[in-house]
Design a protein that fits this description.
This protein is of the alpha+beta class. It folds into two domains: 153 residues, Serine Protease, Human Cytomegalovirus Protease, Chain A, CATH 3.20.16; 38 residues. The strands form two sheets. Strands 3, 4, 5, 8 and 9 form a five-stranded mixed beta sheet that branches. The chain has a four-stranded antiparallel beta sheet with strand order 1-2-7-6.
Length: 197
């Protein structure tokens, strides 16, 4: 995927701004999950409702101790464009935020991520791999990050709550299936033993 750079620059009024895409539409993530691997992508329009109503923060590496901006404070602007979720952050005049801008300017940090919960999604399987398409999400944060789940983003959390819930559901289903199979085997052994005697 072609990537655009995460940028740290000065506005015409001399104020610093960090700009990039926290998500790219219709671009597959890296393989996520452990025992139940899957890939996911974001559909166009997935963020539109959340942008209009939710209280969203810009963080560094999804760390709530490093707040870069907030949409309700006017220090974070979010919009969907033809590429994805466009983010414009007006960072605080603090040492750590200036250090981050330096790292972005040097090219050490070039990508973003987003923290969310799933409102609506669709699961499928492609070439033996589970896939999820995010149709609608509730955003919590957008973050310049060191290691993103979606490598096609620029500047640079995805939250794993929904994924973890899916893993728990699958694990519970597998445990139940294993218990049921074990019980059937016990019953069959009892019947076989009874017939032999």
């Amino acid at each position: 995927m072609p990537m655009t750079e995460l940028q740290s620059r000065m506005e015409s009024d001399g104020k610093p701004v960090i700009e990039g895409h926290a998500a790219v539409f219709d671009s597959w993530s890296e393989t996520l999950g452990g025992f139940f691997p899957f890939k996911e992508k974001v559909r166009t329009g997935a963020f539109s409702k959340s942008i209009g109503k939710d209280d969203i923060r810009a963080l560094f590496n999804h760390d709530a101790n490093h707040v870069l901006g907030r949409n309700r404070a006017g220090t974070l602007e979010l919009a969907e464009d033809e590429k994805g979720l466009l983010v414009r952050i007006y960072p605080p005049d603090t040492q750590w935020a200036r250090d981050l801008q330096t790292s972005i300017g040097r090219g050490d940090i070039t990508q973003m991520s987003f923290g969310f919960t799933v409102e609506k999604d669709e699961w499928n399987t492609e070439e033996g791999v589970d896939t999820r398409e995010l149709v609608e999400v509730k955003l919590f944060d957008v973050s310049p990050v060191t290691f993103p789940a979606y490598t096609a983003t620029d500047v640079g959390v995805r939250a794993h709550e929904a994924y973890k819930a899916e893993v728990r559901l699958r694990a519970d289903a597998e445990d139940k299936a294993a218990r049921d199979a074990k019980e059937r085997l016990k019953q069959r052994n009892r019947l076989t033993k009874f017939k032999i005697l």
